[in-house]
Amino acid sequence: MKPNLLRAAIAALMLIAGVNAAEAHIVAARLGDFYMGVVHPLTDLGDVVLWTATGVLAGTLGGAKGRWLIPVFPLGLLAGLLLGHVFGAVSTQLADAAMMLALGMLLAAAAQVPTVLLCAMAFVVAVIRGAANGADLAPETDRVLFAAGLACVGYAAITLTMALTAAFRRTAADSSTSWRAIAVRALGGWIAAIGLMMGSLALAS
Predict the structure, then answer these.
(1) Other beta carbons within 10 Å of 73
(2) Per 3-state DSSP, what percentage of the chain is helix, strand, and coil (rounded to 5)?
(3) Would you state the pLDDT for residue 24?
């Protein structure tokens, strides 16, 4: 057993010694800057959770309110990308956590959010995440192509999430005690919990 353990330890040390630095943003190298803008948000927990929470909240409020987010959200991403380029990289962890907590609590409470407030919250989320996505760009990145990809995926993500949520709730009874309504509220509780944990970690670091 000892010779086997010794050989295994030597092999592990050789593997560790031969490790090279990983190259980030391989998508840009293979597919180009437009597709980097499309894929980059999908690799960040902040984008995935906040975009989903925003789309689900809008979907629960109905098409009359939610349709305003179709132009508002991509425009907010572009505005955030521009602000990030002008002011440089800034940490958005606390802002992300605060918005997750707010959106999650609204979902969990099944609150009827006014259209103006919904649009304002969606725009703030988009600006924050647009700035965060722009912070990682290399100097040689074509920002126009990246912005186009980011706006397209923002439009698609928010529209599809709203549509799926609306379809999910449409098949349920109007009662707020239906299992589908409870599932959406439970999702809001989990989103709020994620925001609370992220905020605590950001304050502790």
Answers:
(1) 27
(2) 80, 0, 20
(3) 45
Taking only the tens place, the pLDDT of each residue in 71-87 is 999 999 999 998 877 76
Non-local (6+) Cβ contacts of 115 within 8 A are 64, 65, 68
Return the pLDDT at 49.
93
Sign of the torsion formed by the C-alpha atoms of 179, 185, 191 and 194: negative
- Residue 174's SS3 state is coil
Nearest CA to 187 out of 103, 111, 118, 104 is that of: 104
Q: How many angstroms separate the CA atoms of 133 and 40, rounded?
A: 7
| Neighbouring residues of 15: CB distance < 8 A, sequence distance ≥ 6 | none
- Please write the tens of the pLDDT for every residue from 10-31: 655 555 544 444 444 445 555 7
Model confidence band, residue 93 (pLDDT cutoffs 50, 70, 90): confident
pLDDT at position 102: 94
DSSP H or E segment with residue 155: helix 143-170
Which residue's structure tokens are 């809001």? 188
What is the spatial distance between Cα 111 and Cα 41, in angstroms, rounded to a whole number?
28
Residue whose C-alpha is closest to residue 152's, from 97, 79, 75, 86: 75
Distance, in Å, from the CA atom of 189 to the CA atom of 133, rounded to the nearest integer, reads 26
Can you spell out the DSSP letters for 74-122? HHHHHHHHHHHHHH-----HHHHHHHHHHHHHHHHTT----HHHHHHHH
Give the Cα separation of 92 and 128 in Å (integer).
7
